[in-house]
Design brief:
Structural Genomics Hypothetical 15.5 Kd Protein In mrcA-pckA Intergenic Region, Chain A, Alpha-Beta Plaits, four-stranded antiparallel sheet, elongated, nine-stranded mixed sheet, alpha+beta, about 240 residues
Length: about 240
């Protein structure tokens, strides 16, 4: 793996900032200063920044997929004592945080990680990582004009939404794809076009699908899956 990418995966800095750190001569590999960000390194080498060892290249960072049940909150801790998504994962030695949020009543795929840079890229609107939801709505069947409004963007109290992917799978079941992440956005959009949401589940985040992961279950992503997320988020 290239040195700049190695540092970024280890949480030292973004890839671009890591290139600056390397160019400034602050990085050593096996005791020798390295100024080439493209230098190949791995976990078997002694990589240091300002004399301090870089612990854990890409292999140490973790990303987990969780199928969030209804009533579980998308925070690392809760002052009201409610169960959180972090409670659903057993990862000793790793302090995991949710990537974005789902409201308490929304179910489906949420990611947890200790990789701050990846989390930031996955949630920042600039990188337009798609998130796919299935919304079972009231007052169906949904009129085609409402679907067109969702696609074009809906005016909400905090501004007009970006164009969304929207298609009708059943008379009262919408598939909605967002590339931004406002609070309760899918619910507010559907209410605005006249069809309040009854049930909402997120079924995909970037290239990762919920699949057959059971409600309340979690699994650690493979290196290949993490790399696909990085590619999608341009990390």
């Amino acid at each position: 793996m290239r040195l700049a990418k190695y540092l970024a995966h280890a949480g030292i800095a973004s890839r671009r900032a890591s290139e600056v750190i390397i160019g400034d001569g602050r990085v050593t590999v096996n005791g020798g200063v390295v100024t080439d960000p493209a230098r190949d390194v791995d976990d078997h080498l002694d990589v240091r920044v300002d004399g301090k060892p870089v612990n854990g290249g890409a292999g140490e960072r973790q990303v987990w997929a969780v199928h969030k049940p209804r009533g579980v909150v998308s925070t690392a801790s809760d002052t009201h004592g409610r169960r959180t998504v972090v409670d659903l994962v057993k990862a000793p030695g790793h302090r995991l945080y949710p990537v974005g949020r789902l409201d308490a009543e929304t179910t489906g795929l949420i990611l947890l990680t200790d990789d701050g840079e990846l989390a930031n890229h996955l949630t920042h609107p600039r990188y337009e990582v798609p998130k796919v939801y299935l919304a079972r709505v009231e007052r169906g069947p949904v009129h085609p004009q409402a679907v067109r409004r969702l696609r074009e963007g809906v005016q909400l109290e905090d501004g007009k939404t970006a164009p969304a992917g929207a298609r009708l799978l059943e008379p009262s079941l919408l598939e909605i794809t967002l590339r931004e992440g406002r609070k309760r956005q899918v619910r507010r959009m559907c209410t605005e076009v006249g069809y309040p949401v009854r049930d909402l589940v997120r079924v995909a985040f970037g290239p990762l699908a919920l699949g057959d992961l059971k409600s309340g279950a979690s699994r650690r992503l493979t290196a290949a899956e993490i790399e696909s997320l990085r590619n999608a988020a341009r990390v």
